[in-house]
Amino acid sequence: MVSRDFGDGAVGEAPWASVFDPEANLRAVGEVQARGFRAASEVVDRFVRLASKTNAANAGQSSSEVEQNGNKQTSEALGLGVDGFVGSWESLMGRLVQSLRGSPGPRFPTLDLTITESYGVLSLSAVPGGRACSEVWLHNGGPKDLGEVKLRCSDLLRHDGGVVAAHSVRFEPDVVAMPARSSRGVCVEVDVAEVLPAGVYRGTLLAHGHPDVWLPVLLDVPAP
């Protein structure tokens, strides 16, 4: 019998040998099920929070007012909840599939306007007197047109109080149309003054009309 070695190990140590390991396969199946349960739990938690907000709004009112407001809010929640549920579920399932495939996350920092979540950090870098450029993506996975969205950035602060003013940050395009089931990329530019001290400046990126979505911003200004 011929023994074929792969480096320091025998053929039994080849990567595909794990396919025949029942314990490894069982662990893989368990991990798939756990990820599925976590994704479903996120959707359930969103509807629980929606119900909690409705109950809090009804507190302190008379029984007739509570009944009327409760019926109105329930109708609105059902009307809005179905679309929101579908959009959230699609996004979560997409993320689950990517995770199961071992796919990497979004290549660029992303603001998900449908499920109000963000991914990554908007990182920029430029020496004093230069221009920092990067890209952020907006995602609308739901069935509704979200209209036009405008991005805003706060001042970028260094630990010792150094500031890059918000008006130094520009977006191209300045306003982005977000129809149903769409994604749009936005270029972000910052002019770095020649007298700006080197260091790391941090801030926050926001989307007008979407108060629950935000993204950290990091500007690295290395010493020349």
Structure report:
A 5-stranded mixed sheet has the order 2-1-4-10-8, with no helix packed on it. A 5-stranded mixed sheet has the order 3-12-11-5-9, with no helix packed on it. Strands 6-7 form a two-stranded antiparallel ribbon. The chain folds into 2 domains: 11-101; 111-221, Immunoglobulins (Immunoglobulin-like). With 224 residues, the chain is an alpha+beta fold. Helices cover 34% and strands 30% of the residues.
Give the helix/strand layout.
Blueprint: H1 22-58, H2 63-101, E1 110-112, E2 117-119, E3 122-125, E4 131-140, E5 148-153, E6 156-157, E7 163-164, E8 169-172, E9 175-177, E10 182-191, E11 199-207, E12 210-221
Helix pairs in contact: 1-2
Q: β content, as a range? A: 25-35%
Shape: globular
How many domains is the backbone divided into? 2
Task: List unreliable stretches of 5+ residues.
Answer: 1-19, 98-105
- Total strands: the figure is 12
Q: What's the order of the H and E elements?
A: HHEEEEEEEEEEEE
Helical content band: 25-40%
Q: What is the CA-based Rg, rounded?
A: 24 Å
Q: Name the assembly state.
A: single chain
Gap between N and C termini, in Å? 64 Å
Main sheet record? 5 strands, mixed
User: What is the architecture of the largest domain at the second tier of CATH?
Assistant: Sandwich
| SS content category | alpha+beta
What is the top-level CATH class of the largest domain?
Mainly Beta
User: Helical region count?
Assistant: 2
Strand order of the largest sheet: 2-1-4-10-8
Overall mean confidence score, pLDDT: 75
Reported by name, the CATH topology of the largest domain is Immunoglobulin-like
> Looking at this structure, what is the CATH superfamily of the largest domain?
Immunoglobulins
